[in-house]
Write a structure and sequence with these properties.
The chain has helices spanning 6-9, 15-28, 47-58, 71-85, 100-111, 127-134, 154-160, 183-195, 252-263, 271-282, 287-306, 334-345, 371-393, and strands spanning 34-35, 94-97, 117-122, 138-143, 165-171, 199-203, 228-233, 246-249, 313-314, 322-326, 347-348, 350-351, 362-366. With 394 residues, the chain is of the alpha/beta class. The chain has two domains: 6-44 and 287-393, Alpha-Beta Complex (Aspartate Aminotransferase, domain 1); 47-282, Type I PLP-dependent aspartate aminotransferase-like (Major domain) (Aspartate Aminotransferase, domain 2, 3-Layer(aba) Sandwich). It is globular and about 65 Å long. The protein binds pyridoxal-5'-phosphate. Residues 39, 99-101, 125, 171, 175, 203, 205, 233, 235, 241, 246 line the site of pyridoxal-5'-phosphate.
Length: 394
Protein backbone atom coordinates (compact mmCIF):
# COMPACT_ATOMS: atom_id res chain seq x y z
CA UNK A 1 0.00 0.00 0.00
CA UNK A 2 1.29 3.52 -0.71
CA UNK A 3 2.32 5.38 2.44
CA UNK A 4 1.04 8.55 4.09
CA UNK A 5 3.75 11.25 4.20
CA UNK A 6 5.66 11.27 7.49
CA UNK A 7 4.81 14.93 8.20
CA UNK A 8 1.27 13.92 9.08
CA UNK A 9 2.54 11.64 11.86
CA UNK A 10 4.28 14.68 13.34
CA UNK A 11 1.01 16.51 13.87
CA UNK A 12 -1.17 16.25 16.95
CA UNK A 13 -4.84 17.03 17.51
CA UNK A 14 -6.57 19.32 19.98
CA UNK A 15 -7.53 17.86 23.38
CA UNK A 16 -10.76 19.86 23.44
CA UNK A 17 -12.15 17.95 20.49
CA UNK A 18 -11.61 14.55 22.17
CA UNK A 19 -13.43 15.68 25.34
CA UNK A 20 -16.20 17.19 23.21
CA UNK A 21 -16.66 13.85 21.39
CA UNK A 22 -16.97 11.96 24.72
CA UNK A 23 -19.36 14.61 26.10
CA UNK A 24 -21.54 14.21 23.01
CA UNK A 25 -21.59 10.43 23.50
CA UNK A 26 -22.78 10.88 27.08
CA UNK A 27 -25.45 13.32 25.92
CA UNK A 28 -26.71 10.76 23.42
CA UNK A 29 -27.22 8.41 26.36
CA UNK A 30 -29.42 11.04 27.98
CA UNK A 31 -26.89 12.60 30.37
CA UNK A 32 -26.94 16.33 31.04
CA UNK A 33 -23.59 17.93 30.16
CA UNK A 34 -22.41 21.50 30.68
CA UNK A 35 -19.97 22.20 27.89
CA UNK A 36 -16.96 24.17 29.08
CA UNK A 37 -14.45 22.43 26.84
CA UNK A 38 -14.52 24.22 23.47
CA UNK A 39 -13.25 27.72 22.80
CA UNK A 40 -16.39 28.58 20.89
CA UNK A 41 -18.40 31.67 21.93
CA UNK A 42 -22.08 30.99 22.67
CA UNK A 43 -22.90 34.30 20.95
CA UNK A 44 -23.72 34.65 17.26
CA UNK A 45 -22.74 37.51 14.94
CA UNK A 46 -24.66 40.79 15.25
CA UNK A 47 -27.79 41.20 13.06
CA UNK A 48 -26.18 43.64 10.54
CA UNK A 49 -23.48 41.05 9.82
CA UNK A 50 -26.08 38.38 9.06
CA UNK A 51 -27.99 40.88 6.88
CA UNK A 52 -24.76 41.72 5.05
CA UNK A 53 -23.99 38.10 4.17
CA UNK A 54 -27.55 37.61 2.93
CA UNK A 55 -27.28 40.73 0.75
CA UNK A 56 -23.87 39.69 -0.56
CA UNK A 57 -25.15 36.29 -1.69
CA UNK A 58 -28.31 37.85 -3.18
CA UNK A 59 -26.15 40.32 -5.11
CA UNK A 60 -24.03 37.60 -6.70
CA UNK A 61 -20.96 38.18 -4.54
CA UNK A 62 -20.12 34.52 -4.68
CA UNK A 63 -17.22 34.47 -7.13
CA UNK A 64 -13.50 33.72 -7.09
CA UNK A 65 -11.87 36.89 -5.80
CA UNK A 66 -8.34 38.21 -5.17
CA UNK A 67 -6.19 35.52 -3.54
CA UNK A 68 -5.16 37.86 -0.71
CA UNK A 69 -8.70 39.04 -0.03
CA UNK A 70 -10.94 41.75 -1.46
CA UNK A 71 -9.35 45.21 -1.38
CA UNK A 72 -12.31 46.68 0.55
CA UNK A 73 -11.87 44.24 3.43
CA UNK A 74 -8.10 44.62 3.53
CA UNK A 75 -8.39 48.40 3.88
CA UNK A 76 -11.21 48.01 6.42
CA UNK A 77 -8.90 45.78 8.50
CA UNK A 78 -6.18 48.47 8.32
CA UNK A 79 -8.67 51.12 9.56
CA UNK A 80 -9.99 48.78 12.26
CA UNK A 81 -6.48 48.11 13.60
CA UNK A 82 -5.84 51.86 13.66
CA UNK A 83 -9.08 52.50 15.57
CA UNK A 84 -8.86 49.65 18.06
CA UNK A 85 -5.09 49.06 18.40
CA UNK A 86 -3.51 52.30 17.11
CA UNK A 87 -1.54 50.34 14.49
CA UNK A 88 -0.40 51.73 11.17
CA UNK A 89 -1.23 48.99 8.69
CA UNK A 90 -1.71 49.51 4.94
CA UNK A 91 -4.08 47.35 2.90
CA UNK A 92 -1.08 45.83 1.09
CA UNK A 93 0.12 44.53 4.46
CA UNK A 94 -2.99 42.41 5.01
CA UNK A 95 -3.91 38.96 3.73
CA UNK A 96 -7.34 37.44 4.39
CA UNK A 97 -7.59 33.70 5.04
CA UNK A 98 -10.28 31.21 6.05
CA UNK A 99 -9.63 31.44 9.81
CA UNK A 100 -6.77 32.52 12.06
CA UNK A 101 -5.43 28.99 12.03
CA UNK A 102 -5.01 29.11 8.26
CA UNK A 103 -3.34 32.55 8.48
CA UNK A 104 -1.03 31.13 11.16
CA UNK A 105 -0.10 28.06 9.17
CA UNK A 106 0.55 30.13 6.02
CA UNK A 107 2.91 32.36 8.00
CA UNK A 108 4.69 29.35 9.46
CA UNK A 109 4.99 27.67 6.05
CA UNK A 110 6.38 30.86 4.55
CA UNK A 111 8.93 31.63 7.26
CA UNK A 112 10.19 28.37 8.82
CA UNK A 113 12.83 26.12 7.24
CA UNK A 114 13.33 22.43 8.15
CA UNK A 115 15.68 22.22 11.14
CA UNK A 116 14.79 25.70 12.46
CA UNK A 117 13.86 26.15 16.10
CA UNK A 118 10.61 27.86 17.04
CA UNK A 119 9.95 29.23 20.53
CA UNK A 120 6.36 28.87 21.70
CA UNK A 121 4.43 29.33 24.97
CA UNK A 122 3.75 26.37 27.28
CA UNK A 123 0.89 26.25 28.10
CA UNK A 124 -0.33 27.51 24.76
CA UNK A 125 -2.37 26.80 21.66
CA UNK A 126 -1.41 23.21 20.77
CA UNK A 127 -1.18 23.93 17.05
CA UNK A 128 2.05 25.95 17.50
CA UNK A 129 4.29 22.97 18.36
CA UNK A 130 2.28 20.56 16.23
CA UNK A 131 2.56 22.55 13.01
CA UNK A 132 6.22 23.35 13.74
CA UNK A 133 6.95 19.61 13.84
CA UNK A 134 4.92 19.17 10.66
CA UNK A 135 7.34 21.55 8.95
CA UNK A 136 10.26 19.38 10.10
CA UNK A 137 11.33 22.10 12.51
CA UNK A 138 11.89 21.91 16.28
CA UNK A 139 9.38 23.41 18.73
CA UNK A 140 11.10 24.84 21.83
CA UNK A 141 8.73 25.67 24.71
CA UNK A 142 9.08 28.60 27.11
CA UNK A 143 7.07 28.33 30.31
CA UNK A 144 4.19 30.47 31.53
CA UNK A 145 4.24 29.73 35.27
CA UNK A 146 1.72 30.60 37.95
CA UNK A 147 4.45 31.92 40.26
CA UNK A 148 5.23 34.49 37.55
CA UNK A 149 1.51 35.28 37.03
CA UNK A 150 1.82 33.33 33.75
CA UNK A 151 4.12 35.96 32.23
CA UNK A 152 7.09 34.43 30.39
CA UNK A 153 10.52 34.60 32.02
CA UNK A 154 12.58 36.61 29.53
CA UNK A 155 15.83 35.14 30.82
CA UNK A 156 14.50 31.64 30.12
CA UNK A 157 13.60 32.68 26.57
CA UNK A 158 17.04 34.26 26.10
CA UNK A 159 18.74 31.08 27.32
CA UNK A 160 16.83 28.99 24.77
CA UNK A 161 17.79 31.09 21.75
CA UNK A 162 20.39 29.34 19.56
CA UNK A 163 21.78 30.09 16.10
CA UNK A 164 18.95 27.88 14.77
CA UNK A 165 16.14 29.87 16.38
CA UNK A 166 14.06 31.38 13.59
CA UNK A 167 10.77 32.40 15.17
CA UNK A 168 9.12 33.26 18.47
CA UNK A 169 5.37 32.78 18.77
CA UNK A 170 3.25 34.33 21.48
CA UNK A 171 -0.41 34.83 22.12
CA UNK A 172 -1.72 37.64 24.30
CA UNK A 173 -4.28 37.29 25.82
CA UNK A 174 -3.11 33.72 26.07
CA UNK A 175 -5.15 30.60 25.48
CA UNK A 176 -5.42 28.85 27.97
CA UNK A 177 -4.23 31.10 30.85
CA UNK A 178 -5.98 34.36 29.89
CA UNK A 179 -2.74 36.23 30.60
CA UNK A 180 -2.22 39.58 28.93
CA UNK A 181 1.51 40.11 28.47
CA UNK A 182 2.72 43.29 30.19
CA UNK A 183 4.30 46.18 28.29
CA UNK A 184 7.62 45.15 29.86
CA UNK A 185 7.27 41.57 28.65
CA UNK A 186 6.41 42.71 25.12
CA UNK A 187 9.32 45.16 25.07
CA UNK A 188 11.62 42.38 26.30
CA UNK A 189 10.44 39.98 23.58
CA UNK A 190 10.93 42.72 20.99
CA UNK A 191 14.47 43.35 22.20
CA UNK A 192 15.36 39.66 21.96
CA UNK A 193 13.80 39.41 18.50
CA UNK A 194 15.78 42.41 17.23
CA UNK A 195 19.02 41.23 18.83
CA UNK A 196 18.77 37.70 17.40
CA UNK A 197 17.04 38.63 14.15
CA UNK A 198 13.93 36.51 14.79
CA UNK A 199 10.52 36.45 13.22
CA UNK A 200 7.75 37.12 15.73
CA UNK A 201 4.27 35.71 15.30
CA UNK A 202 1.87 37.65 17.51
CA UNK A 203 -1.39 35.73 17.74
CA UNK A 204 -3.86 38.49 18.64
CA UNK A 205 -7.05 36.49 18.18
CA UNK A 206 -8.24 37.48 21.69
CA UNK A 207 -7.04 41.12 21.54
CA UNK A 208 -10.56 42.54 21.80
CA UNK A 209 -11.54 40.35 24.74
CA UNK A 210 -9.73 42.39 27.35
CA UNK A 211 -10.93 43.18 30.89
CA UNK A 212 -8.96 46.37 31.38
CA UNK A 213 -6.44 48.67 29.74
CA UNK A 214 -5.60 49.09 26.09
CA UNK A 215 -4.19 46.41 23.87
CA UNK A 216 -0.50 46.76 23.10
CA UNK A 217 0.63 45.02 19.91
CA UNK A 218 4.31 44.26 19.43
CA UNK A 219 3.87 45.48 15.83
CA UNK A 220 3.88 49.07 17.15
CA UNK A 221 7.31 48.84 18.81
CA UNK A 222 10.39 50.25 17.04
CA UNK A 223 11.87 47.89 14.46
CA UNK A 224 9.14 45.28 14.98
CA UNK A 225 6.77 45.78 12.03
CA UNK A 226 9.50 44.46 9.72
CA UNK A 227 9.82 41.16 11.61
CA UNK A 228 6.31 40.59 12.97
CA UNK A 229 3.32 38.73 11.60
CA UNK A 230 0.12 39.63 13.46
CA UNK A 231 -2.57 36.95 13.32
CA UNK A 232 -6.16 37.91 14.05
CA UNK A 233 -9.65 37.21 12.81
CA UNK A 234 -13.35 37.09 13.40
CA UNK A 235 -13.92 33.82 15.28
CA UNK A 236 -13.62 35.09 18.84
CA UNK A 237 -14.04 38.90 18.75
CA UNK A 238 -17.10 38.76 16.50
CA UNK A 239 -18.38 35.29 17.47
CA UNK A 240 -17.97 34.09 13.87
CA UNK A 241 -16.18 30.75 14.39
CA UNK A 242 -17.90 28.84 11.60
CA UNK A 243 -17.53 31.62 9.06
CA UNK A 244 -13.81 30.83 8.82
CA UNK A 245 -12.38 34.31 8.58
CA UNK A 246 -8.96 35.41 9.72
CA UNK A 247 -6.07 37.50 8.53
CA UNK A 248 -2.33 38.00 8.69
CA UNK A 249 -0.64 41.40 8.90
CA UNK A 250 2.99 41.68 7.79
CA UNK A 251 5.33 43.55 5.49
CA UNK A 252 4.33 43.39 1.82
CA UNK A 253 7.07 40.95 0.78
CA UNK A 254 5.88 38.55 3.51
CA UNK A 255 2.26 38.98 2.40
CA UNK A 256 3.38 38.24 -1.19
CA UNK A 257 4.91 34.97 0.04
CA UNK A 258 1.72 34.00 1.89
CA UNK A 259 -0.27 34.94 -1.20
CA UNK A 260 1.74 32.47 -3.30
CA UNK A 261 0.80 29.74 -0.82
CA UNK A 262 -2.87 30.77 -1.06
CA UNK A 263 -2.73 30.61 -4.86
CA UNK A 264 -1.32 27.09 -4.65
CA UNK A 265 -3.86 25.84 -2.14
CA UNK A 266 -7.31 27.30 -1.41
CA UNK A 267 -7.32 30.12 -4.04
CA UNK A 268 -9.27 32.62 -1.93
CA UNK A 269 -11.54 33.11 1.06
CA UNK A 270 -15.30 33.02 0.31
CA UNK A 271 -16.34 36.35 -1.21
CA UNK A 272 -19.71 36.79 0.56
CA UNK A 273 -18.22 36.27 4.02
CA UNK A 274 -15.58 38.91 3.28
CA UNK A 275 -18.27 41.50 2.50
CA UNK A 276 -20.06 40.63 5.73
CA UNK A 277 -16.76 40.88 7.61
CA UNK A 278 -16.55 44.58 6.67
CA UNK A 279 -19.87 45.05 8.45
CA UNK A 280 -18.60 43.17 11.51
CA UNK A 281 -15.56 45.45 11.80
CA UNK A 282 -17.82 48.54 11.93
CA UNK A 283 -19.63 47.02 14.93
CA UNK A 284 -22.42 49.59 14.70
CA UNK A 285 -24.50 47.82 17.35
CA UNK A 286 -21.60 47.69 19.85
CA UNK A 287 -21.90 43.92 19.99
CA UNK A 288 -18.23 43.49 20.88
CA UNK A 289 -18.14 45.59 24.09
CA UNK A 290 -21.45 44.02 25.18
CA UNK A 291 -20.01 40.56 24.71
CA UNK A 292 -16.83 41.45 26.59
CA UNK A 293 -18.93 42.77 29.49
CA UNK A 294 -20.77 39.46 29.62
CA UNK A 295 -17.48 37.53 29.63
CA UNK A 296 -16.31 39.75 32.48
CA UNK A 297 -19.42 38.93 34.51
CA UNK A 298 -18.92 35.23 33.87
CA UNK A 299 -15.25 35.43 34.80
CA UNK A 300 -16.01 37.18 38.09
CA UNK A 301 -18.75 34.73 38.98
CA UNK A 302 -16.86 31.57 38.01
CA UNK A 303 -13.46 32.43 39.44
CA UNK A 304 -14.69 33.78 42.77
CA UNK A 305 -16.91 30.76 43.46
CA UNK A 306 -14.41 28.22 42.17
CA UNK A 307 -11.74 29.61 44.50
CA UNK A 308 -14.03 28.69 47.41
CA UNK A 309 -14.11 25.02 46.41
CA UNK A 310 -11.44 23.06 48.27
CA UNK A 311 -8.59 21.95 46.01
CA UNK A 312 -9.26 24.44 43.19
CA UNK A 313 -7.29 27.64 42.64
CA UNK A 314 -7.63 30.14 39.81
CA UNK A 315 -6.22 33.61 39.09
CA UNK A 316 -8.78 35.80 37.33
CA UNK A 317 -7.79 36.05 33.65
CA UNK A 318 -7.12 39.53 32.22
CA UNK A 319 -8.44 38.60 28.81
CA UNK A 320 -9.93 35.84 26.59
CA UNK A 321 -12.71 33.64 28.00
CA UNK A 322 -10.93 30.82 29.80
CA UNK A 323 -10.42 29.92 33.44
CA UNK A 324 -7.08 28.16 34.00
CA UNK A 325 -7.52 26.26 37.19
CA UNK A 326 -4.85 24.68 39.40
CA UNK A 327 -6.13 21.36 40.82
CA UNK A 328 -2.91 20.20 42.55
CA UNK A 329 -4.51 20.46 46.00
CA UNK A 330 -7.29 18.03 45.09
CA UNK A 331 -4.66 15.26 45.41
CA UNK A 332 -5.75 13.95 42.01
CA UNK A 333 -4.24 14.25 38.56
CA UNK A 334 -5.81 16.68 36.12
CA UNK A 335 -6.84 13.72 33.95
CA UNK A 336 -8.64 12.15 36.92
CA UNK A 337 -10.41 15.41 37.72
CA UNK A 338 -11.36 15.87 34.05
CA UNK A 339 -12.77 12.36 33.96
CA UNK A 340 -14.66 12.57 37.28
CA UNK A 341 -16.21 15.91 36.37
CA UNK A 342 -17.33 14.68 32.97
CA UNK A 343 -18.38 11.13 33.77
CA UNK A 344 -19.88 11.65 37.23
CA UNK A 345 -21.33 15.16 37.27
CA UNK A 346 -21.46 16.14 33.57
CA UNK A 347 -19.07 19.11 33.49
CA UNK A 348 -16.76 19.10 30.47
CA UNK A 349 -13.38 20.80 30.98
CA UNK A 350 -9.95 19.92 29.59
CA UNK A 351 -6.93 18.55 31.44
CA UNK A 352 -4.15 21.10 30.99
CA UNK A 353 -1.55 18.75 29.48
CA UNK A 354 -3.42 19.28 26.20
CA UNK A 355 -1.77 22.74 26.21
CA UNK A 356 1.77 21.58 27.05
CA UNK A 357 3.76 19.93 29.84
CA UNK A 358 3.38 23.02 32.08
CA UNK A 359 -0.36 22.38 32.12
CA UNK A 360 0.02 19.12 34.06
CA UNK A 361 -1.74 20.34 37.21
CA UNK A 362 -4.44 22.45 35.57
CA UNK A 363 -7.81 22.24 33.91
CA UNK A 364 -9.16 24.72 31.38
CA UNK A 365 -12.79 25.73 31.49
CA UNK A 366 -14.18 27.92 28.69
CA UNK A 367 -16.62 30.51 29.99
CA UNK A 368 -18.81 30.17 26.94
CA UNK A 369 -22.02 29.22 28.69
CA UNK A 370 -24.61 31.51 30.24
CA UNK A 371 -24.19 32.54 33.90
CA UNK A 372 -26.91 30.19 35.16
CA UNK A 373 -25.13 27.25 33.49
CA UNK A 374 -21.84 28.29 35.06
CA UNK A 375 -23.59 28.38 38.45
CA UNK A 376 -24.90 24.88 37.82
CA UNK A 377 -21.41 23.73 36.74
CA UNK A 378 -19.97 25.12 40.00
CA UNK A 379 -22.64 23.30 42.04
CA UNK A 380 -21.76 20.10 40.25
CA UNK A 381 -18.01 20.57 40.75
CA UNK A 382 -18.60 21.18 44.43
CA UNK A 383 -20.73 18.03 44.62
CA UNK A 384 -17.99 15.98 42.92
CA UNK A 385 -15.33 17.18 45.38
CA UNK A 386 -17.61 16.35 48.31
CA UNK A 387 -17.96 12.78 46.97
CA UNK A 388 -14.25 12.25 46.69
CA UNK A 389 -13.49 13.84 50.06
CA UNK A 390 -16.11 11.61 51.65
CA UNK A 391 -14.49 8.61 49.93
CA UNK A 392 -11.04 9.57 51.37
CA UNK A 393 -12.52 10.03 54.88
CA UNK A 394 -14.15 6.57 54.78
N1 LIG B 1 -5.18 31.05 17.91
C1 LIG B 1 -5.59 30.77 19.14
C2 LIG B 1 -4.74 31.14 20.30
C3 LIG B 1 -6.81 30.14 19.37
O1 LIG B 1 -7.22 29.86 20.62
C4 LIG B 1 -7.61 29.78 18.25
C5 LIG B 1 -8.88 29.04 18.41
O2 LIG B 1 -9.19 28.45 19.41
C6 LIG B 1 -7.13 30.08 16.98
C7 LIG B 1 -5.91 30.71 16.83
C8 LIG B 1 -7.90 29.68 15.74
O3 LIG B 1 -8.84 30.61 15.34
P1 LIG B 1 -9.75 30.38 14.05
O4 LIG B 1 -10.98 29.68 14.51
O5 LIG B 1 -10.05 31.73 13.51
O6 LIG B 1 -8.97 29.55 13.08
Amino acid sequence: MPKIATRVSQLTGEGALAVFARAKELEKKGRSIIHLELGEPDFHPAAPVVDAVRAAVANGRDRYVATRGIAELRSAIGEYLKRTRKLDVAAEQVLVAPGCKMALSLAMMALIEPGDEVLYPDPGFPIYPSFTRGLDAKPVPYALCEKNRFQPDLSEIASKITPKTRMLIFNSPNNPTGTVFTAGTIAGIAELARKHDLWVVSDEVYARILFGGEYLSIWALPGMAERTVVIDGFSKSFAMTGWRLGYAVAQKHVIDALDMLVLNTFTCTAEFSQWAAIEALKDETNAVPAMVEEYRRRRDLFVSRLNQIAGFRCQPPDGAFYAWVNIEDTGKSAEQVQSILLEEVGVAGIAGAAFGAEGKNYLRFSLVSAAHQLEEALDRIQRATMHWRAAVAR
